[in-house]
Design a protein that fits this description.
CATH architecture of the largest domain: 3-Layer(aba) Sandwich
Largest sheet: 6 strands, mixed
Structural class: alpha/beta
CATH class of the largest domain: Alpha Beta
Shape: globular
Number of domains: 2
Bound molecules: adenosine-5'-triphosphate
Radius of gyration: 25 Å
Number of strands: 17
Strand content: 15-25%
Distance between the termini: 23 Å
Helix content: 25-40%
Length: about 375
């Protein structure tokens, strides 16, 4: 969808901001550009909407070489979100959001309806926030308006330059989660600049790690963390990359342990007998359809049915959650294991031991991939 072919940008003073960059962002993919200050991230991004023209090389949007397109028309195909947001202070939030549809000549009513829809999508109530002015919003709310405005004309491509850089870490994490949910719905092709490796790892389908003017590694977050391509990348992602990996490794059903299971309607004494035979101190309690109800301690089973002794379970997660979420749920609930569900259906439990092997699994898989040379080296200039 976006393709860089041997793109270089040099300035007359001799600075080479980016040097022979070649990479591709697939349709619907979110690629984060991460690296220290001055390494060329913003330059890369601004070349896509022709705020900066390359010195050499070509950039394609779909099949079009962007140098052959009218820059104004090009920018209307591309949503742009920046840290300072750049909302018009004298226009309401709704009017701000409707800017691009308005420029595209949409009828006023349609533009405003679309703007209201977008505000709703980014978690702002158009009836409450739509008529306010930008200085009547919090920093996080202004960032949301920036995202809504960029999406208003439904552009296929979004460029985002440190869009959550100006808000505090808690709001930032919240905005990131919302943004991921939003991207699941809208599936735009996104280039996202950040200097924060945590943010890059959390949001990116793939990450481009920049050295000075060059991409040192272009790969999935799990591979960048598990198998950094160069000592520079290893240093940049940090010595705690094992921990960061927890957030990009997802729970698979093969990671789970199958604990003893009893059913709600089972007789309690009979269930206790079975658990004693298996040497089990507790069991997961399911209903007839395999839906998780809770758990029961073997020594709590007395008369009646299992349902009379079962306890509700708070500590559960959907399959596909990250190991970090699992670890954090274990700590939050002070639990030695976490139930994992597919919809309502119980799949098994994740224990600390299984969590550790899941982490090993994902690291091992990446190393094997790298050895097999499946990382496209042409995507990594200088590799
Ligand atoms: N007009 C210019 N003339 C000369 N050098 C420039 C010019 N504009 C940018 N540069 C240089 O190009 C390099 C890349 O800048 P760029 O803004 O792309 O970095 P960045 O990675 O986005 O940094 P930051 O995270 O600080 O925004 C820097 O060394 C910068 O000083």
């Amino acid at each position: 969808m976006i393709r860089f072919e041997h793109v270089t940008k040099s300035y007359p003073d001799g600075t080479t901001a980016v040097d022979d960059l070649s990479f591709e962002v697939a349709e619907g993919e979110l690629v984060t550009l991460v690296g220290p200050s001055g390494c060329g991230k913003t330059t890369t991004m601004k070349m896509v909407n022709r705020l900066i023209e390359p010195t050499e090389g070509r950039i394609f949007l779909g099949d079009d070489d962007i140098s052959s397109l009218d820059p104004v028309a090009l920018r209307r195909r591309i949503g742009y979100v920046i840290q300072q947001v750049g909302l018009f202070p004298h226009k309401t939030v709704l009017e701000n959001t409707a800017t691009v549809p308005h420029l595209l000549g949409w009828p006023r009513r349609k533009a405003r309806e679309r703007a209201a829809e977008l505000l709703d999508l980014v978690g702002l109530d158009p009836a409450v926030h739509g008529e306010r002015y930008p200085d009547q919003l919090s920093g996080g709310q202004r960032q949301r308006v920036g995202v809504a405005r960029a999406l208003a004309a439904d552009p296929p491509v979004l460029l985002m330059d440190e869009p959550f850089g100006a808000v505090d870490p808690v709001v930032r994490e919240h905005l990131q989660s919302e943004f991921l949910r939003l991207q699941e719905q809208v599936r735009k092709t996104i280039l996202f600049v950040t200097h924060d490796i945590e943010e890059a790892v959390r949001l990116g389908d793939r990450i481009a790690v920049y050295g000075s003017g060059r991409i040192e590694q272009f790969d999935t977050p799990a591979t960048v963390l598990g198998a950094p391509a160069t000592p520079y990348v290893a240093d940049f992602v940090g010595s705690d990359r094992g921990l960061k990996r927890l957030s990009v490794t997802l729970i698979e059903s093969g990671d789970l342990e199958q604990p003893p299971v009893v059913r709600l309607g089972d007789g309690a004494r009979e269930a206790a007998g079975r658990l004693a035979d298996e040497g089990a101190r507790w069991a997961v309690v399911l209903d007839g359809e395999g839906t998780l109800h809770g758990w029961v301690a073997a020594d709590a089973l007395g008369d009646g049915a299992v349902r009379d002794h079962a306890r509700r379970m708070e500590a559960w997660l959907p399959v596909g959650s990250s190991l970090k979420q699992a670890f954090s749920a274990m700590l939050q609930h002070d639990a030695g294991w976490i139930a994992v569900l597919d919809g309502d259906h119980f799949l098994g439990v994740l224990t600390p031991g299984r969590l550790h092997s899941a982490l090993r699994r994902s690291i091992g898989a990446d190393l094997r991939d790298v050895e097999r040379g499946e990382v496209p080296l042409d995507a990594v200039p200088g590799a």
